[in-house]
Amino acid sequence: MPTYEYEHLEKSCIRGKLFEIKQSIKDESFQKCPTCNGPVRKRISCVGLSIQKTNTEIRDLGFTKLVKRDDGVYENVTQRGKESRYMEAGKPETMPDLSKIISD
Question: What's CA 101's distance to the chain center, in Å?
C-alpha cells in the first residue's frame, strides 16, 4: 500500500505539521486529520526509484557482488584484475582483494 503525506492547514496536532499515512490508491484523500479532525491537504512527495545497476557499474562504484553457486561456493561477478572468479569457503586465497578497493 502506498504512503501519502498530508499537511495540516491550521495548527498541527500530535502527528505534527506534516504526517504520513498508508492508504489504498482507491481511497479518497483525507480532508480532515484522522487524529484532531483539523483541515489537511495531500502533498506531492518525492518518489523513490531504484534503478538496477549492471555488474560493471557495481564494480566501478567499489562494490563486490558474490552470487551463490553451490554450498560454500560463490562467483565473484565483479572480479578485478587477478582476483579469483570463484570464492570458496575455507580458502582465503579465493577471497576478493579488499585492499585494492578500500582506502582511506
Answer: 22
